[in-house]
Task: structure prediction
Amino acid sequence: MRDTTPQPIHLADYQPPPFLVDHVALTFRLAPSATRVIAHIRFRPNPSATPGHDLRLDGEGLTLISASLNGAPITAHPDATGLTIPAQDLPEGGFDWHCEVEIAPEGNTALEGLYMSRGMYCTQCEAEGFRKITFYPDRPDVMASFEVRIESDLPVLLSNGNPAATGQGWAEWHDPHPKPAYLFALVAGDLVATSDRFTTMEGRDIALNIWVRKGDEDKTAYAMDALKRSMLWDEQVYGRAYDLDVFNIVAVDDFNMGAMENKGLNIFNSRYVLASPQTATDNDYASIERIIAHEYFHNWTGNRITCRDWFQLSLKEGLTVFRDQQFMGDMRSHAVKRIEDVLTLRARQFREDDGPLAHPVRPESYVEINNFYTATVYEKGAELIRMLHLLVGEDRYRAALALYFDRHDGQACTIEDWIAVFEEAAGRDLSQFKRWYEQAGTPRVDVSDAWQEGTYTLTLRQHTPPSPGQPLKEPLVIPVAMGLLGADGRELLPTQVLELDSPEQSFSFTDLPERPVASLLRGFSAPVALNQRLRSEDRALMLAYDTDPYNRFESGRALARDILHAMVLEGATPGPDYLQALRVMVTDDALDPAFRALALHIPGQDDLASSLHAAGHVPDPDAIQAARTTALRLIAEDLRPDLLRVYDEMQTPGPYSPDAKDAGRRALRVQAVSLLARADEGAKAAELFARADNMTEQLGAWGALLGIGKGQAEGAQFYRQWANDRLVVDKWFSAQVMYAAPATAAALAQELTQHPDFDWKNPNRFRSVIGALGANPAGFHAKDGAGYRLVADWLIRLDGVNPQAAARVSTLFETWRRYDTTRQTLMRAALNRIMAQDNLSRDMGEMVGRMLG
Ligand code: 0A1
Ligand code: ZN
Result:
């Protein structure tokens, strides 16, 4: 058991920093096991704090060599989390702090602070990693300019800002823009750059570099292209230009998250930079485009305007996700992008919001902030901005953002600051809207309707279920975009936005020629669970005729969900109406192939477990898996000729291009071949695997074979072909686990952990085997508990070396209360076993503690 329980930090306890920092000068003498960090920091008392405070500096795992104040040596006594200089020892007014510490990047397996990845030095300081580099007030509301000198024999030495001077074995960088310490970065390695230039709208010439390991330089073109498009888009759409002379991106193989927006020096997990047609799928290309844009957009929303404290994290993350979603819609297809985003939101955020880890977009307390980089803070945070955009309209949204940039540039801000610019720009009170930031849980909206003599009345009721620490909820402002359809599919009422702001409200529509079908929540206008009872004929009507592409998709999905529920609960089979509706979608050449591909995806296992649970049933993972398998086979048999035709028609002539048009065609083709595999024993899939010249089709075809229990020979060939490409080997591991038969999935994953390429300390590789069980729910939830035991064993092991990565994977267990008592008992035992470990990390202790409740 942990001997000291870490104490939570509360938003309500926020106090301004007693001292501010004007300038930081750092020298790094790099050495793997004994790096020296020499810091000169200029402090001054904060005029808006009470005077007379001690100076408290954060610091973890630092060996203090020497320290001085205004040049006079002092003896400081660090404790486990930092050091304190008593107020009486501090010079009056401002003062210079100097200190030298020693750290060991080589032994840093947590990948936080300064660490090494295959011979290269790199940093990760968000959220609180800078305190592992030197003693500092490591909080985002302390912003300073930085000068950095790096001494090392490695050829490439990078830090934030602009290059200042360089010589044999050293380089200096100056970052004039005041920044919080979490945006500090340093990289040193034997790297090569792909370089380009960008001229800003102000006419400034910017050098762009993407730094990778030797041998990877032929895989950077797409990331560079995405970067230039992001820079142009932020100028054109938000009026924001880049503000340094150089913009550097570095790809590293060992990285806990996706990427990091350090000022002028973005550091990326290499999987979100490196791509070639042979090694990256279309989805990989799209992720690279999105994440390059996301990190670049942070330069304004995050870096120039940052967060006052970590409770405000969604201020930068929700807004930056919303911006990357807008960008991707502009680059590709708004309709398809919206559907994909909603699918992600429901799969990840609704799951979080409905379980023991539910928390508000702005949490009120945390033990370990790294545990709050969640789908709620990111994706639900973006939904809140989307709702604001809808409620105030495009023009006022633009005015609010102009005001935000103008008023808060260079500041560390709060959600209150954000809401205030909207209140001013839109002339509207948003105090009720603000509850969205404060209340956890997914609101339910129940719909009933009535028809009388030309008047149609809709009644909407909202209710947000209790969540941890929040038993009672207040009503929210819910924008419900809607339209009305006539029986022949004609639109009787085009899209308008109803504002539901009370527990129950009715809306009447008069002078209608016939009883309409209400198409509600168009574009998924609010992150709520809509409970609208519709006859399947009405769903079929919307599927065929709705003018809103999201609701067309959604009606097809709701039909599929109803059928799968009936299959799981009553052993029903899909009726001809559903199959006919699918056929119409799949063969409609007027529709975007990417949209048709999405429409062919039936709801996944976890999605069904969640919807069955919401409908009051205890989900049975085996029954769900079996029902999906049957449904897929019946669809494949029924639609076989159509799928064959689509498969042929969707060939992409000419050389591979990752653009949305070709990617959409390939998505439909791969979707067709994986369905066909269930009717032709994998004949077409084997043929495609043999012929594929790109990773999308190669992996898609192999997955299709694995999905029907075949693909062994192809798997061996795949490994032989790609054994030297780490990112493709990750795919090789994860595909096997994802598609493994439920009864043997845990055993297979266990066997793969014995493979010589299973480097469990590399986060991508760990996730590709252990994390991949999350994509095989029937396997993870195998009733003998083997999946739970395996995951718990590995979480315990990883927690000892990389708590942050381990804590993230622990969310595999977050839905444990949905299941039957046998499974609940097994999962609770696994969680209790983790909890009982000696030296459990703060990260894991908090996550497991919250899950156990
Ligand atoms: N701010 C980054 C993601 C990120 C967050 C936390 C990290 O360590 C705890 C690392 C990266 C982004 O939103 O892209
Ligand atoms: Zn971000």
In short: The chain is about 40% helix and 20% strand. The longest strand covers residues 19-29. The two ends are 17 Å apart (CA to CA).
